[in-house]
Amino acid sequence: MILPNLVLGGAAPFLGYGHPPGVNMGDKFKDRGQALVVGAHATLMKGIHAPAKADAGNFARGAYSVVMSGIYVDDEDMGEVFWYTGEGGMDKGSKQVKDQQMLTGSNAALKNNCDTRTPVRVLRGYVEEAAPAAGGEEAAAGGKGGKGGRGGRVAAPKKEKGLVYEGLYLVLEYKMEPSKDGPLVCKFLMHGLPGHSSVNSKVEYGILSNVGSAYTMHARRLAGAGAPSTKRARKAAKDEKARELARQWMLSEVKRLYPGPELQQEDVSGGQEAVPIPVINQVNSERLPSDFAYTREYAWAPGVYHLVAPALRTADEEMRQFSREAVHGLCGIAFNRHIAAQDRALEAAGKLPQGYEAHLEQQYNEAGCLMVTDPCGVHECGSGCSAKACRRNMQLSQGVQLPLEVFMTASKGWGVRCREEVPAGAFVCCYVGQLITDAMAEVRKGVDHYLFDLDFFAHIYTEIADKGLGAIAEEIPLHKIPPVLSVGMIRQTQINAAAAARHLPEKQERPQPPAAAAAGAEGGGAYGGGAADAAAGPATAAAAGAGAPGANSAEAAAQSGGEDAAPGPGSATGSGAGAASSSELAGMVTREGVARAAHALAESCDALARSVADGASTFLGGENILAAIEQAKSRAAAAATATSTSGAAAAVDQPHQLHQIDRAVTLAAASKAAATAVESGDPGAFYLQPIISRDEDKAAERAGGAAAAPLALPATSGDGMDVEQQEQGGAAAAAGPQGGAFSNRGPAGSAVGAPRLLPPAPDRAAALAAGPVAAAAAAAGPVQGDGEEYAPMLVIDARTTGNVGRFINHSCDGNLTIQAVFAGVYRSTLLYHVGLYACRNIPPLEELSYNYGYHNQQQQQQAHKGGAAEKQFVMQCNCGAANCIGNLM
Ligand SMILES: C[S@@+](CC[C@H](N)C(=O)[O-])C[C@H]1O[C@@H](n2cnc3c(N)ncnc32)[C@H](O)[C@@H]1O
User: Fold this and answer.
1) Distance 810 CA to ligand 1 centre (A)
2) Which residues lie in Low complexity bias regions (predicted)?
3) Is the pLDDT higher at 762 or at 848?
């Protein structure tokens, strides 16, 4: 046996808690000697490394580390959670012959970890295929040392054994129960500390000693004790219990750290995230807005999903086509492998542009940190994937894992920090909120500080074009960058959907079986393709085939409680979130269903308009806002230099607000008119509402007689918003004109991209036959040409419904970076998540920030609009970075 002092050469072993310096989760050790040298498990002899009795202070805190090596038949490893057996009572043949003791020795120390909630380091045994070159060298880990060693050193050709560092685990419970061999053993329930633990191996009995596995035998025993009947259900029940216990511990930590009134909320997520996110204010008495509701996933504003579904569907078909080529479209790793292979082929053909980074098959490293940002997006795996690499490829999908805090900053309002160091590449959180259309966001631009355009890929096209990288523009979009819809394609899908809607039956013929819809989530794509449509009968198939939204499998998955089912469009996760039931979804294949969606959307638009108008009333100074707008407009025109304190003068000072109200009223009127047209027999009118708000579109709508009806009513028409509505309190208060006109949304995104194939030409004859609205829209036609324009179709509004991401402030030198991620229920669709990752190691309690990027967007807009960027608002930047340019926008 090698003695520690021989291994360490006289150096002191590491006697401390937490991660040992320089050791990362996933680090592998050939044997205990290596683990000792680095301080991961500083004993060669024992499975539990506890402080010496003489070190009473540390002993009372608990053990430093444990090795889970499959020596004890009563161990039970479920990954993130495992039951660990204490030490003692074994004979030389590793049979339990005596009761173990809970109150003495290492078992007592491990019990203290539970009582004091001190995390313990964990190492697991692993066995894997040896690299071909490796000789017959055998790992010594888990041999006769440790807690007894039932096996021995049996040669295992072609296998490599060792220990892997799994980070920090909490001891959630301890108990004594009879061993399978008879006598009592001490058992400890361990749970990985979120953000500080990994599962690189699962230990089965005898894993390091080639004794047969007892895992299944143990599972049978559990099944007989009235536990849930399937292995999966049992695991889920234990996971749930362990998560709750871990959460309770983390909450107690929060209260210990912030014992006073500075702790405004223990967990702003209300239990939705795995870790509690406290709200702390040590600066003033401000509180979070009372209308803020936390959501972990996107929440659709009522009616919006149905309106944009045809356009999303078109993009998703391209994406699914690509996925099918990739063989395993839904496995992120397989998807990446496919792209990487294409990159290699391009490289071999000498076509890979210089400076272009080839795609990685694994985008996260062993510790789960993103290795490099990727314009193609990060493709995560779903619950169907179980390989080790796949499990690691689910960082965003797991939600927040780091101990984040929302705290009051000195000069930027609320901000976010992390109590622990955040390693470079670690996933911090994503930015989610309510999804609204670009046209709806346009109404709130300037009064909403929480808008985020989903136009990431459009910007990539712009960057490519701006850099003049012709070769990239030609090659990359063809195989790498996910599809982006041009404005023309969006308009065309709307026209197609409108035409198809006119062939819908009045009432639903046959209800959609939810199970079939759920099956479509994995098999048929996310927007009603494949099995879901087929099962729904001819009516659904016809509508879906023509672009109208059939059953949405992402929604169905969400409703059926599928594992991946983060709250999708079908779940109400906060105020104003979409709440379509499955019958409503199925109802979308009838005219009745379209009418319901049209009314829901009209209500959403109305609420948006009211929130802007309510804020505006303070500076327009009138109860009848529409009349006040008219007055303000005419006075503004007549007296551009007015200096009085009247409402009109204020409006002149704030032309931006006036413009907002104009837009709000127009949008509310258009959506109401569409709902009315649907009611009176034209379901197509629903799909012809504006999704993207662009000056060109508005001009076309206003100009073309039939094109203007029913979508472009006069901006201040009394039909658009009645007095009763005007006087109703807004569902959500606007930031108000003084509140700092600013948002996460830059100037209207417009980007010139590489030429892309257009879908088939619109069936204008069918549209003409179908009625004046479709004819008008067909006449307005898609925008075509080499320089196609791209614009964000959807915008995230996190003002009243959002997650911790909406509290993260801007810095000109941010420590986080933005990355598009395909994950969770939406992972095979175009609807990516906005992931925020650490771009360097961030010390504990440093404020987290990222560069909002407005200046870039503004420059782009200037470039593409011939220098005429719309400068709407300026706000002083208080980021304090050395390279701070002084203002936001
Ligand atoms: C997405 S929110 C961030 C959270 C916000 N601080 C809050 O209290 O909810 C964006 C708003 O935060 C403030 N903000 C963010 N970064 C800032 C900075 N660098 N300087 C000044 N204000 C900033 C501005 O009011 C901005 O409109």
Assistant:
1) 7
2) 542-570, 726-736
3) 848
- For the chain, the 3-state helix, strand and coil shares in percent, each to the nearest 5, are 35, 15, 50
CATH code assigned at 414? 2.170.270.10
What is the average per-residue pLDDT within 94-104?
90
Residue 242 lies in a domain: no
The verdict on 309 and 200 lying in the same domain is no
Region 131-146: mean pLDDT is: 43
Atom 13 in ligand 1: residue holding the nearest Cα: 412
Asked whether residue 341 falls in the same domain as residue 479, the answer is: yes
482 within some domain: yes
What are the DSSP calls for 537-595, one per residue? HHHHHHHHHTTS----HHHHHHHTT-TT--S-TTS--STT-----HHHHHHTTSHHHHH
Both 182 and 303 in one domain: the answer is no
Indicate whether 370 belongs to any domain.
yes
SS3 844: coil
Scan for tokens 């659904």, then name that residue: 540
Ligand 1, atom nearest to 743 Cα = 27
Residue 512 contacts residue 552 (beta carbons within 8 Å) = no
Q: What is the pTM of this model?
A: 0.66
Residue entry with tokens 């047209």: 677
Task: Report the residue among 279, 287, 409, 412 best suited for mutation to probe ligand 1: largest number of ligand atoms under 8 A from its CB.
Answer: 412
Q: 39 with 170, same domain?
A: yes
Pocket of ligand 1 (CB under 6 A): 412-414, 449-450, 740, 742, 744, 806-807, 809-811, 877-879
In the reported structure, the alpha carbon of residue 743 is separated from the centroid of ligand 1 by a whole-number distance in angstroms of 9
- Taking the CA of residue 852 as reference, the ligand 1 atom at the shortest distance is 16
Residue 784 pLDDT more than 80? no
User: Could you tell me the distance, in angstroms and rounded to a whole number, from the CA of residue 557 to the centre of ligand 1?
Assistant: 35
Write down the pLDDT at residue 654. 57
Give the position of tokens 């470039």.
Answer: 863
Residue 477: domain span: 299-487+789-853
* Residue 116 covered by a domain: yes
330 and 471 together in one domain: yes
User: How many domains are contained in the chain?
Assistant: 2
314 with 180, same domain: the answer is no
What tens digit of pLDDT does each residue of 293-331 get? 999 999 999 999 999 988 888 877 777 776 665 555 578
222 or 863: which leads in pLDDT: 863
**115/866: higher pLDDT:** 115
% of the chain with per-residue pLDDT over 70: 60
